[in-house]
Amino acid sequence: MDVSLDLLIGAIVAGLLLGGFYAAVTAGISISFGMLDIVNIAHPGFIILGSYIAYIINIQFGVDPMIVSVVMLPVFYLLGTVIYQVYYLSFEKRGQESLRGLAFFFGVLFVTEVVLLLAFGVDYRYVEAPYIGPSLHFGPIDLPLRMLVPCLAALTMFTALQIFISRTFTGRAVLAVSQDQFALQLMAVDPVRIKRIAFGISIATASIAGALLVIIQPVEPSVGREYIGRVFAICVLGGLGNMIGGFIASFIISQIISIGGYYSNTELSYVLAFTLFIVLMFVRPRGLFAR
């Protein structure tokens, strides 16, 4: 009985640490999909791109993946603004963003995967860092540093994003553009510019999320597909446009997956998580924490 209790405690702790990573991955989707109504299914592809950049620089120069992700933030931000500008001129400006815009991002995801596949093959890649391997021990609780460090980094990133969104004029403009673009225009603010900034920020988060992913597990070009359904489900479950709701939903889903894996297996735990998601969507169609 003691062994079972220890394993259950371990599963709960693992779920908490995994929830931090899910929160980092979902943050960008919460901005692009929840606030800007842009179904960027290519977001996991940008995360994998961030993973490979962290891997290349880590292997070649020995730089810590977390440092690489922070240095690459401006590059990913600029990449996001360019992609949004192409998306806006090609689809949003013409009112064709619903289906054709979705196809555009699917194409971006496909191209990203193929380029990485041609460059690196299908072999799994991993990084090296002092915190990959050791664990902290507190009685029956084990805290693997390769999970704890990404969780703390994700919480830091989420806190910074939340402060930016709630305390700065540009952040409040991002919230406003998702609700009333005409009100922004009356304040002499260009909604397209605000959307470009917001989308750039959403892609910039992929730089950090990518580094966190390659710290947690080895990666290969198609591993991002595993997260498409999860991150969009978390975003919807938390309530579109509600970053705090998405944050809480990340830990709900991660706990279901972790504890479900303890009682059965990983595959069934995902079935349980998405079954609960479907049921909750019937009860709360706009999400648990919809504004």
Number of strands: 2
Report the structural category: mainly alpha
Major sheet summary line:
2 strands, antiparallel
Distance between the termini: 43 Å
Main β-sheet, spatial strand arrangement = 1-2
Runs in which pLDDT lies below 50 for 5 or more consecutive residues are none
**CATH fold title:** ABC transporter involved in vitamin B12 uptake, BtuC
What can you see in these coordinates?
This protein has a single domain (2-283), classed as ABC transporter involved in vitamin B12 uptake, BtuC. Helix content is 75%, strand content 3%. It has 12 helices and 2 strands, in the order H-H-H-H-H-E-E-H-H-H-H-H-H-H. The chain has helices spanning 2-35, 43-61, 65-71, 73-90, 99-120, 145-167, 169-177, 181-186, 191-216, 225-238, 243-263, 266-283; strands at 135-138, 141-144. It has a two-stranded antiparallel sheet with strand order 1-2. A hairpin with a 2-residue loop joins strand 1 (135-138) and strand 2 (141-144).
